[in-house]
Amino acid sequence: MSSCQSKCHRLGPLTRNPFVNYLRWFRKKHCNWKVTRFVIEGAKCWCKMSRGEKLKYFAEACKSRRRRRRS
Q1: What would be one Pfam family of this protein (predicted)?
Q2: Of 5, 27, 32, 59, which has the maximum CB count within 10 A?
């Protein structure tokens, strides 16, 4: 197992936010980067993506379940 794989084993749950779901995937590809770098670079890539490319992440966000708030 490479050091990159051992570092990135926890991606977190799918969310209702498509951009956050994209960052989960982006972090998996660039797991050796510092957090600030991967967020900034991920945001730049997200802005350059077409609506069609983003559609996958919008679909994931729609499928993710809604969390109930505790009263």
Answers
A1: Protamine_like
A2: 27
CA 52 – CA 36 distance, rounded (Å): 27
Token pair of 1, please? 């197992």
Q: Measured between alpha carbons, how far is 14 from 5 in angstroms, rounded to an integer?
A: 19
pTM metric for this prediction: 0.76
CA-CA-CA-CA torsion sign (30, 32, 35, 38) = negative
8 vs 6: CA distance, rounded Å: 6
Query: What is the rounded end-to-end Cα distance, in angstroms, of the chain?
Result: 44
Question: Which two tokens mark 47?
Answer: 């802005």
Cβ atoms of residues 38 and 51 within 8 Å: no
Q: What letter represents residue 15's amino acid? A: T
